[in-house]
Amino acid sequence: MRMVRCPTAALSLALVVCLATACGPNGTGNDEPDTDTVAPHIADLVASPTSLDIAGGGVSFSARVSDESGLYSVFFRVTDPWDATTDVSGTEGEGDSYTAAFDAPSNSEESVAVYHVQVVAYDNADNVGESPAVQFEVAALVPPPLPPQG
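The structure corresponding to this sequence follows.
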């Protein structure tokens, strides 16, 4: 059996092996994979209005959220006075702006209902960023006046 050598095929294979070895798996010249470990950047969280009457009503949220690897999920987490949470999906606007709306229920308590809102954002590498919370409130039920004593 006679073997025929093909110099072009051997050269191509050698070139592929050489490039793979020199460049590494991520093409940067090292063997470390590219990893994003930076959480999304969140700024300028606003809730408006910050004070509602006893009937409650709509509250708008806005914030700027960005990340170099891209964003997978952005939502506004609303925590009520009893520590129950509601996540409201953010809608992407122009640039890096996100908005959402929440309908605060009426307050039947004799104390002000204080709600806290924060932005939670996940990037494409599953890093999570959380903003400091801002708050809004729903006015307290005013008890009826006491009857005159006499």
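The chain has one helix and ten strands.
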